[in-house]
């Protein structure tokens, strides 16, 4: 348990995924949807979910109903790793949009799949290969890591299957809310715990999920620019030109959704590039 606590602390070091520079907030206070709440854990126990800090709630990260111009039918989930958003398509040309964090595993799949399994406060176990090749790191988790705020899958997980086979692509919560909106060191597609709970409650097994390729994203969303803080935003024509030869400290054009590789900790905090637990979420 001591090692789990240690790895959890390291994982929370991913709060350093972006710089500690101040950002412009869409709202200086925390909206009700992102306030602290008490949820029911896997064994019926109460689990406290902390409020999301206002600093992490920029305009693109906050759950909101937006116009939607994609071809998917209402009810479909659309994941856009390049633009770092997830859409739940609604009737009438609208969609509920959520900000997401994109890990390395989240960039390795594009296509259409189905949610075949949903889990509340899911457990996690490293694969046999991980245990065999890195026993010092993963053998202690051979019996699995129970669900809870220490678990890298967070409060909920959605498991994607294609043709009846597990894609190993996951949509899940997070133990690091500072990562949302950024390209992080590991994992698939992560949402704020409050957001993945909202999505989880609205969809069922059998829901269609389309994961866009970068080409699809650019055709529908346009080019994206990565800000100095590690977030993305639509590129204006002048920004696109500037991105071809960015000046020091200026935003750069995102060429793939795993562009933000640098991990910088806030002042006084330890710096890490990957949590042992978080790195194994595939």
TrEMBL record:
InterPro entries reported for this sequence: LD-transpeptidase (IPR050979), LD_TPept_cat_dom (IPR005490), Transpep_catalytic_dom (IPR038063)
Pfam families (alphabetical): YkuD (PF03734)
Signal peptide range: 1-26
CDD domains (alphabetical): YkuD_like
L,D-TPase catalytic domain location: 75-212
Tagged with keyword Transferase: yes
Pathway assigned in UniProt: Cell wall biogenesis; peptidoglycan biosynthesis
PANTHER family in alphabetical order: L,D-TRANSPEPTIDASE (PTHR30582), L,D-TRANSPEPTIDASE ERFK_SRFK-RELATED (PTHR30582:SF24)
UniProt record similarity statement: Belongs to the YkuD family.
Record protein name field: L,D-transpeptidase
């Amino acid at each position: 348990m001591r090692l789990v606590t240690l790895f959890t602390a390291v994982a929370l070091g991913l709060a350093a995924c972006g710089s500690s520079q101040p950002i412009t907030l869409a709202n200086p206070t925390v909206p009700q949807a992102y306030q602290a709440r008490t949820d029911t854990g896997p064994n019926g126990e109460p689990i406290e979910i902390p409020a999301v800090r206002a600093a992490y709630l920029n305009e693109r990260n906050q759950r909101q109903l937006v116009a939607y111009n994609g071809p998917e039918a209402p009810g479909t989930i659309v994941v856009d790793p390049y633009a770092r958003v997830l859409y739940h398509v609604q009737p009438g040309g609208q969609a509920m949009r959520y900000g997401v964090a994109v890990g390395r595993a989240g960039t390795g799949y594009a296509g259409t799949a189905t949610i075949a399994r949903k889990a509340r406060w899911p457990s996690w176990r490293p694969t046999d290969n991980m245990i065999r090749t890195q026993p010092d790191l993963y053998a202690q988790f051979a019996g699995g890591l129970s669900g809870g705020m220490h678990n890298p899958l967070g409060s909920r997980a959605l498991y994607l299957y294609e043709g009846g086979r597990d894609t190993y692509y996951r949509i899940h919560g997070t133990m690091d809310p500072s990562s949302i909106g950024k390209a992080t060191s590991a994992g698939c597609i992560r949402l704020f715990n409050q957001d993945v709970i909202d999505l989880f409650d609205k969809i069922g097994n059998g829901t269609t999920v389309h994961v866009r390729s970068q080409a699809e994203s650019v055709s529908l969303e346009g080019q994206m620019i990565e800000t100095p803080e590690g977030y993305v935003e639509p590129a204006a024509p002048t920004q696109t030109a500037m991105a071809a030869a960015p000046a020091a400290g200026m935003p750069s054009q995102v060429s793939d959704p795993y562009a933000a590789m640098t991990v910088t900790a806030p002042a006084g905090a330890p710096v890490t590039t990957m949590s042992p637990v978080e790195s194994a979420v595939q």
